[in-house]
Design goal:
By secondary structure, the protein is of the alpha+beta class. It has 9 helices and 7 strands. It folds into 2 domains: 79 residues, no CATH class; 143 residues, DNA integrity scanning protein, DisA, N-terminal domain (YojJ-like (1, 3-Layer(aba) Sandwich). It starts with a helix and ends in a 7-residue tail after the last helix.
């Protein structure tokens, strides 16, 4: 008797609704807390298939919930793929000329290279970010305003161990040292070898999200590396560093 009453009260559609809701909440938990960015799109597409199935089968509870959650799905896409969207906007800005053109002189590059050579020889850790067309103020935090002419001596003093500003990045903008002690976004790429520490990950991170150039001096090995467009490359000789900077910043040699 009780079983027959239960069958009358609960249909197969109701059971599917309950199972579907359980799977939906599990998927949302996975997206919000466990999933990495590359898997989120697949999960959202799968949820779209579930929503279509719920509509076809007439599952009222699932259909109602999916209709209310589409805004959350769009918001999740924006949050998860924020770096890719930012990078796309940077590229669009380059093509349309929205961003300013940074100006640098060869003498400033010489001073940067001289500072890097000095710090590399003494294994003084350093991280220098050079702005190009995109302003990176919205990507950096905790900065100390400097606004000084570029000099090798000032850069060495900033990064010298135990000085107040040594822990963080220097930002160079239009031939001047704009900020020191900046905190940069860290790259989450798995392609970066584990031997690299916070400085190298920060250098890759800022160049993934902007068109800036980042120079790293390793305090462990004294090696100089340069990051552009999210790619980190060792520089075996300071003169090669100068040539790369002249090319990337479009500065004419001897100008």
């Amino acid at each position: 008797m009780a079983l027959e009453l239960l069958k009358e009260l609960v249909s197969w559609r109701d059971l599917l609704d309950v199972v579907g809701l359980t799977l939906l909440f599990y998927a949302l938990f996975h997206v919000l807390f466990l999933a990495r960015g590359q898997h989120v799109l697949k999960i959202l597409l799968l949820l779209g298939v579930f929503w279509a199935g719920a509509q076809i089968l007439g599952l009222s509870a699932l259909s109602w919930l999916f209709e209310k959650l589409w805004i959350l799905a769009l918001f999740s896409l924006v949050v998860v793929f924020q770096p890719e969207l930012r990078h796309a906007l940077v590229r669009l800005g380059r093509r349309t000329g929205v961003f300013k053109v940074a100006e640098y002189e060869e003498r400033s590059i010489d001073r940067l290279v001289r500072a890097c050579r000095f710090m590399a020889e003494r294994q003084i850790g350093a991280l220098i970010v050079i702005e190009r067309e995109q302003n990176i103020d919205d990507l950096i935090e905790g900065c100390v305003y400097i606004d000084a002419y570029i000099s090798a001596e000032l850069l060495i003093t900033i990064f010298y161990p135990m000085t107040p500003l040594h822990d963080g990045a220097v930002v160079v903008r239009n031939d001047r040292i704009a900020y020191a002690s900046c905190v940069l976004p860290l790259s989450k790429t798995a392609q970066l070898p584990k031997k690299y520490g916070t400085r190298h990950r920060a250098a890759v991170g800022i160049t993934e999200l902007s068109d800036a150039i980042a120079i790293v001096v390793s305090e462990e090995t004294g090696e100089i590396s340069i990051a552009v467009d999210g790619v980190l490359e060792k520089v075996l000789d300071p003169e090669l560093l100068k040539d790369k900077l002249l090319s990337l910043l479009e500065v004419e040699h001897g100008a």
